[in-house]
Design a protein that fits this description.
Chain lengths: 95, 382
């Protein structure tokens, strides 16, 4: 076995191990929360908007500005269009 | 030269923002926002001279209609007696559907979680970056940004979801230059950007070959607050007409983020980790004929008691980070670094903090030396 195959094997077993671990955690996780599609804007905001940085208060920006910020955060946090729309809706009511 | 670049970049950005602001006035559905962050550092190495440093990064955001979005960030830093101006990213997005966006331009590397999501000074809980994720403090094993195109998005899965990003880009180029080797800038792990033979040059903006790098990341959410990511990149890194044209670099990345508010412990926990492994083919060329495998990693935990009554203490945050960088044993640059950092932050607002950090670094090269440093940072996001 040459070095190249060896390290490809090593990295693929690393990936396989990772996927297995994630699969287990996934099953545990699925049992607890509500279906993704039923989540409200407020819930999605609570789940997503404090994951990377401190929560920015809704009153900090006006409606049109939140439109831009949440589009920006859609690209950073890989949100679906639907999640982004619900979160903007919530922020516009709460600001 | 860098002064000229500074003026040019500034002028372009001003023209750009003014024209967008005008577009905003004339059309209802186009929105513009100026955001970004700034910082001032004060550093004192154990036996070194203390120094102030400062920089800022304006971010220009433009949303046009429901589907088009542009993001651009410039970076102004003071370094080695000059002002460095740079384009951190400039990317246009088009939203194809609920689950997918297409981006083209220069974008933050989606498999470098720290640089894509955590590096702005008002987000990063310590005043500097972990080893390996960027050139700061040693050698980068992963690009900060890619120049090319990407698709990214999310797919709901019952009560959870997974996220994905796939890109093709110019990718990195292998450093082989003798001149860089002689400059010795990074041999001791102090240099900002490494160019030693066998390391990768990630600012390969005029691609050195026809091969395009291919990479991506998937992110899984076993719990809403827990994200686990797996990333990869495959790229040929040699020059087109050179004997190294088939030289391949394979990168694997694992990352983990967990943020949780606990009423029992009266505060918020923030746990982050990222491991990078980079393998470059062995070649017959003199500077590259060894097992070229590098790795880096970091683990960080932060706790902020924001649920207690004491006004002073609830704004404090305690941080601990361990990080390391292992370079190939037979490479020209073979110093291995290990570092532990303790941090204390005082949050003035959700987007501004004063940070104090004390770090202890072990450098294992031909000899072993340790170095400690004290850093204070004032950080503001806007």
């Amino acid at each position: 076995m040459n070095g190249k195959t060896e390290r490809r094997l090593k990295s693929s077993s690393l990936i396989a191990g990772g996927i297995f671990l994630i699969f287990i955690l996934f099953i545990i996780g699925c049992a607890t929360t509500m279906p993704q599609k039923q989540k409200t804007g407020a819930m999605l905001w609570g789940e997503n908007c404090n994951r990377c940085h401190n929560v920015r208060t809704p009153s900090e920006f006006e409606d049109a500005q939140w439109d831009v910020v949440v589009s920006h955060m859609r690209t950073r946090a890989n949100l679906t269009a639907n999640e982004a729309e619900k979160i903007v809706g919530f922020l516009k009511v709460a600001n | 030269m860098s002064k000229l670049r500074f003026v040019l970049v500034s002028a372009l950005l001003i023209i750009f923002s003014v024209s967008i602001a005008q577009a905003q006035n004339s059309k209802q559905r186009t929105n513009f926002l100026l955001s970004g962050f700034g910082y001032t550092n004060f550093e004192k190495a154990q036996d070194g001279i203390s120094s102030f440093n400062s920089g800022f990064s304006p971010i220009f955001l433009w949303k046009s209609g429901e589907r088009l979005f542009f993001e651009g960030e410039a970076e102004f830093e003071l370094e080695d007696g000059a002002t460095n101006a740079g384009l951190e990213y400039a990317q246009m997005f088009y939203s194809l559907n609920n689950n997918m966006q297409v981006g083209v331009g220069k974008f933050l590397n989606p498999n470098n979680l720290f640089m894509e999501r955590l590096h702005p000074t008002w987000i990063n809980r310590l005043p500097n970056n972990p080893l390996g994720v960027s050139g700061h403090g040693g050698v980068a094993l992963l690009a900060t940004a890619q120049l090319g195109m990407q698709i990214k998005g999310a797919v709901p899965l019952k009560s959870s979801k997974f996220t994905y990003a796939l890109y093709i880009s110019n990718g990195p180029a292998i450093n082989i230059s003798e001149a860089a080797r002689d400059s010795g800038a990074v041999a001791d792990g102090h240099g900002e950007s490494a160019a030693a033979p066998g390391t990768l040059d990630f600012s390969n903006y005029n691609d050195n070959n026809n091969n395009k790098a291919f990479g991506g990341r998937i992110g899984l959410f076993p719990l809403p607050q827990l994200e686990i990511g797996l990333g990869f990149e495959i790229a040929n890194v040699g020059g087109e007409a050179s004997p190294l044209v088939d030289l391949q670099a394979i990168t694997n990345v694992f990352d983990l983020s967990y943020t949780r508010a606990s009423s029992l412990l009266k505060g918020q926990f923030d746990i982050r980790s990222q491991f990078i492994s980079l393998t470059i083919d062995k070649s017959d060329e003199e500077q590259l004929n060894y097992k070229n495998e590098s790795s880096s990693g970091y683990g960080q935990i932060a706790y902020r008691p924001n649920k207690i009554a004491n006004r002073l203490l609830k704004n404090c945050e305690f941080v601990f980070r361990y990080d390391y960088l292992d370079l190939p044993e037979f490479a020209y640059l073979n110093s291995d670094l290990q570092r532990t950092t303790f941090g204390l932050n005082y949050w003035l607002a959700p987007n501004s903090a004063i940070k104090f950090a004390f770090e202890n670094k072990t450098i294992k090269g031909h000899e072993e030396e340790t170095e400690s440093m004290f850093i204070t940072q004032f950080a503001l996001g806007f």
